[in-house]
Structure formats: C-alpha cells, structure tokens
Amino acid sequence: MMNRSILWMILMVALAGCVLPNGVRFGGGVANCSFMAWHQSIDQLPEPPYPTRDTTGDEHTLVVIVRDAETCQVIEGASVFFDMTNHEGVYDGTQQGATVTNALGMVVIRSNLPSGYDGGQPHIHLFLEADGYTPITTSYDRFGGASEAWFEIMLSPLA
What we know:
- This protein is mainly beta.
- The protein has a single domain, classed as Protocatechuate 3,4-Dioxygenase, subunit A (Sandwich), CATH 2.60.130.10.
- The chain has 1 helix and 7 strands; from the N terminus they run H-E-E-E-E-E-E-E.
- It has one helix at residues 4-14, and strands spanning 60-68, 79-83, 96-100, 106-111, 123-129, 136-141, 148-155.
- The strands form 2 sheets. A 4-stranded antiparallel sheet has the order 3-2-5-6, with no helix packed on it. A 3-stranded mixed sheet has the order 4-1-7, covered by helices on one side.
- The longest helix has 11 residues, at 4-14.
- It is globular.
- The chain starts with a helix and ends with a strand.
C-alpha cells in the first residue's frame, strides 16, 4: 500500500495547472512545462527483456512522469526500463524491471533503497522509449536519503 504522501503526489500531478512542492507547474501548456532529465551517457543497460514489474522492494518509491518535450503533454504507453544496484552496490538483476506509463504519463516504481558504488551517488538507471520519440537514457540520483521522489522526463519527437 502506498503511503499518503505518494498518493498526494499522484493526485497533484493529475490535476491540471497544479504546482508540485518544488514549484514545478503541471498542465496549462508548454509555458508551465519543465524537465528534470536529459540524455546522458551512462553505463550501458543490459539488453531487455527486463522482468515486467514495477516493484522490487518496499523501501523507496519513485514516481516517473513522461512528457512530450514540444507540447508538454503526457505520453501514455511509454516503456520505462529501470536498473539499480542491490544494498551492496552490485548489479545483480534483482532490482530491475520494465513497466509502461498510464494515461497520466506516469509509472510508480517501488524498490529497495538504491545504492551507489565506487563512492558514487545512489541512483537508478532509466531507459525510456515510446513510438514516435527519440529514446532516452538517464538516471535518477537519490539525493539526501529520500525514500519518496518524483522525476519528470521529457521525450523529443523523432525528426
């Protein structure tokens, strides 16, 4: 069962023109649209198929919202692949999965706490793709030990 703060975050995202706790506005067109991720060169993710799941633990919740970079509209049906290390900082496949965004352009990933390795920041690798859009590889860096977070990602339409 999700706790109240995650449910509250999801409700706020669903409302047109809402403002999330960090001041980012949703709804109301491109002028209110912002992004939190861009394409990054990171370690290559293992080839899918990842297990179809959005839950690998119960210590951390990440709400991912996927939007069109030009129109700011949510993208339903985007594939979201995720991978992270276990508590020992090792990629062992137990913390990876694949899911699809809902009608709100959203997925909720529940996992164990992501760990860092080699002194790096704890993070979750994300690979996203959707029909008609350029795929993106990025990562969510878990700052300050938060157990709940949201992460907005913009996909660019294919040229």
